[in-house]
Structures are given as structure tokens and as C-alpha cells.
Amino acid sequence: MPDSNEPAQSGSRLTRPIERLGEAALRILAHVGHSVNLAIDTAVWLGRGMQPGRAGRGGAAIVQQIVRVGVRSIFIVSLVSGCVGLILTLQLAPPLDQFGSRDLVANIIGVAVLRELGPLIGAIVLTGFAGAAIAAELGTMVVSEEIEALEAHALNPVRFLVVPRVAATIVSMTLLGVISDLMAIGCALGIAMLMLDIPPSVFMENMLFQVSLSDFLTGIGKAMIFGTLIGMISCSNGLRVSGGAAGVGNATTRTVVQCIVAIIIADLVFTAIFYAFELF
What we know:
mainly alpha
């Protein structure tokens, strides 16, 4: 005799993928909504902090986070950027030699570093160095109920925890972008002089002929956007931790993945915008 529950079970198997898809969509929408609300609250508190008479308040917390997030990242950003500058120079020299244009390696290095690689390398390094740390720190505070303790004392967590970290990531990423540019170009200049027999004067003359102030400002603008993304994504994931220590680890992993993906997409969007403006 056939089981009367068989049609119901087969129907549930058919609808299960749709249910999982709907649950995933709801989780994504909830995460996006939380991130947008957090970004709005952060912008409001940042605006209030910049008002006359309030600019000095909270400055110590921001400086502390800049030292923790930015200053400690200088060495690793400099190391990675310098290695990338060396690699690019050595990789570009053989193809350019075929056209008798080895000196033009400086032109390519200048554009590539100032527009793209400088801020991009700094952002990826800062994500692994500081973004994960911010998410883990805030997640631990959520698990240990320190966030609830702040709210019980009428202290806004966004104002005292999120704003200093987001401001620190923006300032740190901007400065790290400049450091990354200098290290990559400096190492490229050194290897070009020592191994490619390109005089420093020729290298700098070619690079300055190719690049302009807008190239540098483009990279700085990208660095500021990248810093904002790192700070907001890290804080959002940290404040949404649940499930104890395992939740903190998951939040850290999500932060690194989401930051890198967001940085690459933002870089693509702004590069397309800048390219469109150059056409006109």
C-alpha cells in the first residue's frame, strides 16, 4: 500500500531549493540594510563631530586607532609595494627592449602605480592587517555583551566604537596609498638604475612627462573610498556577530572576503568613470 505522505515529501523536496534561495536572499538584504543604516549613523556622527566646538572631542580615540590601524601597517605595505615595483620593472623591460624603448618603462610604472597599484595594494594589505582585527574586536565585544553594557549606560556604540575606526581607516588608507606609491616608484627607480642601466634623470623625466597631478589625485580618491569600505564592512560584520567564538571567526573571514571583493568592484567602477571623463 503506498504511503500517503509520499506526495508531501516529494513536494517538500521540490520546494527546498527555493526556500534556501529565499533564505539566502533575505540574509543578504538584512546584511545590506544593516550596513546602510550603520553607514548613515556613522556619517551623522562624523558630521556632528566636525561641528565647531566639537572637533576636538573624540580626537584621541581616532589618533589611537590610526596608530593601531595605519602606523603598524606601514612596514608591510612598504614591503609589498616595493616588491611589486621591482617585479613590474623587471617584467616590462624585455618586451620594451624588442622595440628599443626600454626607457619607457618609467612611463608605464608611473601610470600603473599612481592610478591603480598604489592604492589597491595598500587597501588589500590593510584589509588583512586591520579589517579582520576590527571585525574580531567588535565581535568579541558583542559576544561578551560589552555593546549591551554601553547601551545600558546610554552610550551610543556607533559614536564611540564605529566612528573612530572608520575615520582611522580613511585617514590611514589615504596616507598608506601615498607611501605605497613612493615605495613602488622608488624601488622601480633603483632596479632600473642598477640592472637596466637607465639613468635616474631619464627615468624621472619620462615618468613626469607621462603622469600628471590628476593621476595622483585619482589614486588618492580611490584610497579614501577603499578606506571607507574597509572601515564600514569591518564594523558591520563585527557588530552582527552571533554564535560565540565561532561567530567571531566567521565574521573575520567574511570581512576579508567582502572587503577585497568590494575594493575590486569599486576600483572597476571608478576606473570606468575616470576613463569616460578622459574621453570627453
